[in-house]
Amino acid sequence: MCPMNKFGKWLPLSLLISFISIIVVLVFTVDPTTFEIIKEVKTEYLLLAVALHSFSYVIWGARTQLMSNALGHKTKLIRCIEIVTSSTFVAALTPSSVGGEPLRVHLLYKENLPVGRASAVVLGERIMDAILMLTFAPFALYIFRDIMQDSKIDTIFAIGQIFMAVILVLLIYTIWKPEKTKSGMHYIVDKITGLLGKKSEGKHHKLIEQIDHELEQFHESLVTFLKDGRRGLLYGAGCTALFWIVEFTMLPVILLGLNQEPQLLLVYAAQVLLILLIVIPATPGSSGIAELGATTLFSVFVPSSILGIIVVAWRALTFYMNLVVGGIISFKILKDTDIMKKMMK
The pTM is what? Predict the structure, then answer.
């Protein structure tokens, strides 16, 4: 997990990288035709794209609620929507969006879910996302194979796919071999304790016991999902599919708003590949990678004169809107706790 006190430093870095990337893209794509197209923009489509992204928060919140309920812990939909929305703020500041998961676990714990069960819900969501993307990635690569014949780009996509696969395998191994996972965690704690010296020895056994307890809770929760909470998994899978359909539909709507006819197969395939790029843990919020990756992939079906504008509009929804809305919700629900103060130090 990334240290919370680094988030305040990552925010300006993430924004700086994103701004520079957007300026570079605009410099190389804007021409006189761009301004003519902007004059004829259909605002209602752009508002629809905003509405779609807002609706994705609701779907995500519903997924969290249904999966939590399947473990026997009743949570309110509005609270789950607040939890997932606030996590998008932290996710937008961390590589691979990994910061969002610990915050969701923390907030679910505050809703009386044991940490192990909250972790099972959050990691269960992550597994579903990974399975869906890894399932469609080969088809997306096949669609783009003849269009973008570049070995370097193929390598980058492969790295993203391998990274997602490794995470998925590690999570599955944690479920399949909980005792070996405990042994591995004990080994890591022992090594860290040795590096920190005698001062940490008193906390060593307590930490080991806590890790064992949470791993047992996590494993028991996943077993509960597979045995008694299968309906929750089924609902979660349905919400996952609907969530990504809604998210991926924003780009075609943006294209319609700029009077462009979207090629749906290419548009959806490009976004699957873009997810593979974004999960590579290189920069906070994948800033720079997202903008330049989108420019490369979207150039296949977007005229160069409006390519930069499309990338800006897409990034405004998927990144800047998350920062603004997620930030507002985060301060609302965390204002009375120490966690937000730690984040901004």
Answer: 0.79
